[in-house]
Specification:
This protein is an alpha+beta fold and about 475 residues long. The protein has three domains: about 130 residues, lambda repressor-like DNA-binding domains (434 Repressor (Amino-terminal Domain)), CATH 1.10.260; about 130 residues, Arc Repressor Mutant, subunit A, CATH 1.10.10.2910; about 180 residues, no CATH class. It contains 21 helices and ten strands. A hairpin with a 4-residue loop joins β5 and β6. It is globular and about 85 Å long.
């Protein structure tokens, strides 16, 4: 990958600082030797300035090196990790300012890291390459971290959606229809919106929408449900109203994310769409009543869902936006699972754990346990109703899971058939920790009618632990036998 001008400035600054320190010179002393001001030298070392040739020559002479060595992009072993990061392009793709990180300071930190830290960074780069951990995976991991850092609640997007609703005369309990949103897209933002069956393109049969930027045209799959069309229109309004004209997805779902801006802009537009269709006040009022009950009744949550022009997934994601921030529920998480009846498989598709201290291994155990429970209970019910031709809409179930350390998780799942594929179903889950703080808000966390299951170690982990226990037991027997012989 060709280095950009800002990368070249950073490399020169790092090399200059390293050479100056090797000579034991302060910035003031180097300034005296070269006639350059301390502030200017500081700007060079921070990667903000790139001197003209005569000043570079003076710097090289003062530092006992050559002009060519100073300006060369070839890095020694000490700075090699910096080169790997810059060449990999990750620092250019991720907007570090979103995480409060100054790019130049990060590079400087890496450059000044002890040898072991540099080796560690280099090792991570090689592991990523060996296991084909693509930039795309990194983008989605970075997005999850960004969402978790903010508790998946973004005030500026909430305010933008509120202003949009007010400007267009939507009252708090008004439900924007897909047609009303389509008209706004066409009349205010100059879109052309067309519904199509996509029958001439078999590869796109499961695509929900296609955006053609050259024509500002949005193609919507005509077979979608009303709430799916409404969300696609609301999301597109997010792109237009928020001015997200840079990197963006051209189809839903997208086949591949090509940059972090692509992923982030999609997230912002989706958040705006959810806030537009599910404004906070009325939804929070309904959720407070639902949570206050001493017994869990899934129909109550389904009835609340039914008052909105929303899919279960958008509804569940919106809960993660609002409940921690407004109701103070801690340890909240979101999961989505897909079930394929013919393959008899359940696959985790999405996850978002808002508690950043959650043990990664326990998250994997939760995914395994929730997936197995869904297969046995919720997906089984959906398949039975489908077979008897009695399926009428989403189902809701709840279950508790106990971790190895005693932490209990309460999981609520909403499952439905996929309308475009009769052999597939999906379930979205909202889970939360059972703790003192949450017990003040949620009355049904200890409902005895809700079942409880333990989280089990993943098979490969369990096998490894059992093998280690057998080895340790054998070693203890060996030591005991030796001590007995020699006594």
């Amino acid at each position: 990958m060709e280095l950009k001008e800002e990368d070249i400035r950073l490399i020169l600054g790092l090399k200059l600082k390293r050479a100056r320190q090797a000579e034991g010179l302060s910035l003031a002393e180097l300034g005296q030797r070269t006639g350059l001001s301390v502030s200017y030298l500081n700007e060079i070392e921070k990667g903000r300035k790139y001197p003209k040739a005569e000043k570079l020559a003076a710097l090289a002479k003062a530092l006992g090196t050559t002009f060519d060595k100073l300006v060369s992009l070839k890095l020694d072993k000490h700075l090699a990790p910096v080169g790997e990061l810059l060449q990999g392009g990750i620092l250019k793709e991720i907007p570090l300012d979103l995480f409060g990180i100054d790019r130049g300071k990060l590079v400087e930190l890496i450059a000044n890291a002890p040898a072991k830290v540099s080796a560690f960074i280099s090792t991570l780069t090689r592991i990523a390459a060996s296991y084909d951990l693509s930039q795309e995976h990194f983008y989605f991991a970075a997005l999850r971290s960004y969402q978790e850092l903010h508790g998946n609640h973004f005030v500026e997007l909430e305010e933008a959606a509120r202003h949009f609703r007010e400007h267009h005369g939507f009252k708090e309990r008004d439900l924007p229809t897909s047609e009303r949103l389509r008209v706004i897209l066409v009349d205010e933002f100059g879109y052309a919106v067309e519904e199509t069956a996509l029958q001439d393109y078999p590869e796109l049969i499961h695509i929900r929408s296609v955006f053609i930027p050259e024509r500002r045209k949005l193609l919507i799959n005509a077979r979608l449900a009303e709430n799916q069309k409404a969300f696609l229109h609301a999301k597109e309004l997010g792109y237009a109203y928020l001015g997200l004209s840079g990197q963006r997805a051209l189809m839903t779902p997208w086949p591949r994310a090509t940059s972090f801006d692509h992923v982030l802009n999609n997230s912002k537009a989706s958040y705006f769409g959810g806030a537009l269709l599910l404004p906070p006040a009325a939804l929070l009022e309904g959720l407070r009543l639902f949570f206050a009950a001493s017994t869990f009744v899934g129909e109550r949550l389904l009835n609340l869902l039914g008052t909105y022009n929303s899919s279960p997934e958008m509804f569940a994601v919106r809960i993660t936006n609002l409940v921690p921030h407004h109701l103070g529920v801690h340890g909240l998480f979101f999961q989505r699972f897909d079930h394929h009846r013919m393959r008899d498989s359940v696959e985790p598709m999405k996850e978002l754990f808002l508690d950043r201290h959650q043990d990664p291994q326990e998250i994997e155990m939760l995914n395994d346990a929730v997936g197995a429970w869904l297969k046995k209970v919720l997906f089984s019910r959906i398949d039975d109703l489908r077979t008897r031709k009695e399926y009428k809409g989403p189902l809701c179930e709840a279950h508790r899971f106990t971790g190895p350390g005693g932490q209990v998780y309460f999981v609520i799942a909403i499952g439905r058939m996929m309308g475009r594929d009769p052999d597939r179903s999906l379930a979205v889950c909202i889970g939360m920790e059972v703790n003192g703080a949450n017990e003040k808000v949620i009355g049904f966390l200890h409902d005895q009618a809700v079942g409880t299951s333990p989280l089990l170690p993943r098979p490969v982990v369990a096998e490894r632990n059992e093998r280690a226990q057998r080895i340790n037991a054998a070693m203890e027997r060996l030591v005991k036998d030796r001590m007995a012989r020699e006594s």
